[in-house]
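User: Hey, quick favor. My workstation is busy. Could you predict this chain's structure for me?
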Amino acid sequence: MTTLWESKGTGPAIHVFVIGVGRYDYFKDGSKHQARTETLAKGLGQLTAPPASAYEVCVTLMKELRDVPDRALGSIEAVISAEDPQLPPGFADLFPDMGGQVGTTAGLEDVQEAFERWYERCDSHRDNVALFYFCGHGLQLGAYGDHALLLQDTRANRFASFQNSIDVPGTLQNMQGNRAAIQCFFLDACRGSQDVDATLQSLKSTALGPSLHLSYDPEQLVVYSTGAGAPAHGPPGESTLFTRSFLKALFAPEHRRDGQGWQVTTATVGTAIDQLMQWPGLRHTEMPEQQCATSSFNVRGGVLLRFTERPHVSFHFDTAPTDALGTAAWSLADLRGNQVASRMPGPGPWVDSGPAGEGDLHVAFADGPYSTTSQQVWLQPPCFHHTVQVDVS
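Assistant: No problem, here it is.
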């Protein structure tokens, strides 16, 4: 059983399906790997970032969405595999009703069974939000060719190497027949073809869901962690930059001037992820270049989440010259003079969060040659970065 959590409510809700594949039985260092010269090169192996990323998605969405008004969390379905199937600390306590299979297998049959449960829940109400997340290996033949998300038993059949993988365009097409009016897909996987035989014309992967030949005209947003033909990156054993950006973007609403408060919509969340992936608070200088890409079908700015209170915005403050950082004491106040955040001198930039809107930034230096300075800043979701130019006194 891979249903981590399911609400007892019957109204519109957000239904989540999470896939994280770290163990690949037929790839390099896999338990069933056999060296072959055809179809698949030796470059694909075992991964540790996808299970870590998938677990973080499950935990964050469970904690943040369970009690959201208007459209709360309806369910979390998860299929995760890892070389080390041990669950992260606190995971079992957060999901006491989960089955024992989480973290062990993520083959095509596992994914199909879980997808069917998720599909039926999404299909239960027109105002549902369907949220699909994948992290693992991926392949795409050219900019517009076949695109597949690879599963634990991909390559089990030597004559149909990619049958046990997810056909992305086919799955999106099948989801057109689902009643959920808003459908979002967040795909954290490579989109290159350097790991397959150059003569391969088709992946012949498997589309998830029923082929109903009908459409309920849903909004479909797809956010890819990287562009066509490009790799996606993840630090060993940690969640990926795309995943951390996605989780921040989902709770980084924009303010509506028509009195509708703060909202995260299908028109804003992709842009927010892209901005966060370039924000120095998440992206370190040694990370490889990576930029997300989006595609959409019938996106009309549908609302994913509404917030009545002004959100906090993650910020990153540093100094020029950087030598001043070590003696800089920081404080951020609102326009009434109330301090909302502060930091004593320490190494590195100041990374924290403060309420959206205008504020006063104050930087003082206890000793050294630098002059104290104050500046007005405007914190705007999803993130903010500012370098303070300091003078020598």
